[in-house]
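Input record, target 12 of the design panel.
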């Protein structure tokens, strides 16, 4: 049972580290570096220092590992933080993707054809405009 809770803590810590680090990077890029907490500023300063020695991807990976280890200890993880498989990354590292595909609510899946509301017919804006112009013209010419 202890390994399950340790794994659960590790997953939460890893997820939080990834989200927080991405947020910190974005805030720093937008000029809000001074508004970040001191620990975030420390992680970003070490990340920037490593950028001079290694590539951005390697520096980001090391920084994420540092934040993860820190969060693992803060969340009550015992011992060294376990190595977790990093989620598969797409070519663009700045995009955030959902880990689980979304499913429609169960109520919509079980609703029959008679329970569903009738589909609305969309009316083009030009048709509505033409009808309004015709009504205004009729109102202007008919009373005279």
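The sequence produced for target 12 reads:
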């Amino acid at each position: 049972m202890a390994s399950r809770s340790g794994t659960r803590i590790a997953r939460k810590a890893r997820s939080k580290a990834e989200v927080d680090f991405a947020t910190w990077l974005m805030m720093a890029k937008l000029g809000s570096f001074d508004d970040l907490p001191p620990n975030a500023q420390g992680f970003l300063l070490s990340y920037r220092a490593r950028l001079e020695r290694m590539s951005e991807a390697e520096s980001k990976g090391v920084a994420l590992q540092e934040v993860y280890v820190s969060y693992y200890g803060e969340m009550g993880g015992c011992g060294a933080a376990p190595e977790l498989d990093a989620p598969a990354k797409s070519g663009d590292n700045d995009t955030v993707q959902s880990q689980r595909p979304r499913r429609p609510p169960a109520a919509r899946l079980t609703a029959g054809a008679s329970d569903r509301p009738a589909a609305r017919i969309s009316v083009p804006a030009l048709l509505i405009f033409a009808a309004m112009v015709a009504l205004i013209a009729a109102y202007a010419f008919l009373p005279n």
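The chain has a mean pLDDT of 78.
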